[in-house]
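Exercise 3.2. Students should predict the tertiary structure of the chain below and write it as structure tokens, then compare their answer with the key that follows.

Predict this chain's 3D structure.
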Amino acid sequence: MKSNWLTHGKHWFGILGMLLIFFSQTVLANGSFKGVTEVDGNEFEIGEEFIVTYKLAAEGSYSLSNPKFGLSGAEFKGLEVIKHGQDRSFSFGFGDNAVFTYKYILKGSKPGVFTIPAVTIQMNGTSYPTQSKKVAIVKKIKETGITGDLILQLKPNKSTVYVGEPIRYDLHWYSSYQAKGFQLKELPKFDGFVVKTLESQTKTKIKTINGKKFLTGKSYSFILTPIKPGKIELPVVKGDIYLTTGRGFFQQTEAREISSQKLSLQVKPLPAPPNGTTGSSIVGKFKLRTQLDKKELNVNDAVTIKVVVKGSGNLNALSDVSIDYPSAFETLPPTTKNNVKTDLSGIHGSKTFEFVAIPRQPGTFTIPPVTLSAFNPQKKEYYNLKSSTITIKVNGSASFDANPYVSSGGRDVEIQGSDIRYINNVEKLSTEKKSDYTNSFSQYLLLAISLLTFALGTFVFKKRLLSKSEIKSNKRAKANRIAKKYLKNAQKELNGDKNKFYELVDNALNNYLLGKLMIEQSQLKQETITEKLKKQQVKESLIKETLKVSNDCKMARFSPLVLAPDEMLIKAEKVINELENQLT
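Answer key:
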């Protein structure tokens, strides 16, 4: 009996093994793989360790049997490797997974922007490239003015600046309590600056300051370029920090508002330029070069000259570059290509001005250097950017219909196509023959029709103005339908993407309030919502619950806090239904 069972068992195990081999081969054919580079942040202090992870990620269903992996190309210039190694576990299954993971622990010893290189991961003889990334290594932050338990600070990366010199302000928060995250109420408005806002990707850290432990994080960086000199007041930044109380099932989250201190920045005017030079609108460190697509061409052929200005500073302020062509060249208006980027290291990149010119006469022509003036804020002095002289040889014979800028006899010329026509002198002016249309029946009929059309249009326009109240009424009526549409879409994500679910629920409530209260997106603040709902005589408890649902959604999206999605959906539906009953 036992022998019979073993015989049947071996038979079934053999069939099962064949099915698994067939299944794995089939599933592997349906799946695909890609290389991924992950860094746990984008800015780190000198000496701070951070992790770089290279992954081979599987997309779709897959199966692997004794895979062989390899990795090449990991050279971290300017960064120290503390430790590295492979995660020996690999997955078998469906969906998005990492089948190979290799980690490096790095640190920087000097400030600057460094490249995390792309590497190549090999699996069973096939190569999968990853992506390169940039990280910023900054000086250790001096923690000053940290008094109290909840602090919000704007910290500049320099103390003084000139007009046109970019400066970076980082927004840091500190909490001596257990916290889940921080959220701005609204982006601050920096008057007197050109502003670029960068959302931080750094993780929260625990720091000991003056013998006290704080949980701290950086939320945003603001790259500000001052456009006027003098003392400029910076706005007070406000936001909510989400604190956690209790433990386990009884854990609760409370939003506490915190504000930054009042700050000002003294912006210095640019000094007077030296004799023989003109002032400059560009401030920073730049280089200039020219590119010529051909040094020899024929008459009536086109030549392209590119002027490239590259470096770091307020490149966006550079709007005009000119080339002094000989009169034998017909020129077209230049085109500009902007490749300027703003990141944690500031504003940098290049601007390219492309000039196309057509020679109309043969000969050897010299184009003088292109010269620009710039100001270096570190050296506190002006300097010139100068290209090399360009020589162009033009072959062929002169074009008779060209050179529209010079004419014989000193008379003005008028260009029509490629012909030159002289402007004729008029000896005597005479009146035209009187038209039969003037004072005719046709003229008066056309005038009457015009007046009637104007009167009718005015009437229709007034009627349209009167319908604005109808537009508002329709917007209020649609608010509930729009909210229900968002909630319906959120319900589909109950067991799906958590961030998308909470975003949809939050959008449902926000769009309902926008339509029902007839406010703009910029007014979607707690103070405005509270004021508007109180005017509509909405109960205090319902106002608080409305704001709480909105805050919980935002907190769940931007912090590790875990909330039950089904409960949040029920709360949002209940709040919207109760508001619908109380709002007129």
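Discussion points: The chain has four domains: 29-138, 150-268, 284-395, 469-582. Residues 118 and 132 are 4 Å apart (CA to CA).
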